[in-house]
Fold this protein.
Amino acid sequence: METQASAFWQHDYAQMLERAKDERKFVLLDIFNPG
Amino acid sequence: MTYPLDLVKEAIAAHAIPVQIDNSDSKNNIFLHGIHHIWTPDIRIMHTDGYEMYRWDGFLPPFEFVPRLQCAFGLAFLRLKRFDEAESCYVDVLRRFSTSYAAPEAQYYLGVTRYRRDPDSDEMMTQWAELRSRYPASEYRVKQSFKELPE
């Protein structure tokens, strides 16, 4: 429902898990429906 | 809406990489089935080992979203025994969002965090007393109510 066409949101979960390790962060998953 | 606000984006980016997944896109079906997704928005804080540290469903406006998110990060840090970072999240909720729905949870877990960092501290009982005083009708008051029973 709330999507943003910005660089803020990523879409490759597996890749972001790896990045999160490097940055010592978590991954916030937002599963949404565009309808 | 919630996400366009800088307040929200800054809170997310402070401790997490934001990933959006469209549940109407069939290429996501296997993944969504695997994590038992059922409703949107479905917000999860994931550790890098794939463990789900916190979750909630449903829309929250910005001034409820941010304190809920801070509680989510707080518990995620607490699970990792990163007590100082957990404490910062909970204190932030109580300072900036003391009337939010998430605030009683922050008060409860602030006590847990300080107790787990220093078991000799009386901080758990101090924070839970504050919880009883500030949020007497909350579920988190009930969660500590065994401490209100006579010995």
About this structure: Residues 1 and 35 of chain A are 6 Å apart (CA to CA). The longest strand of chain A covers residues 26-32.
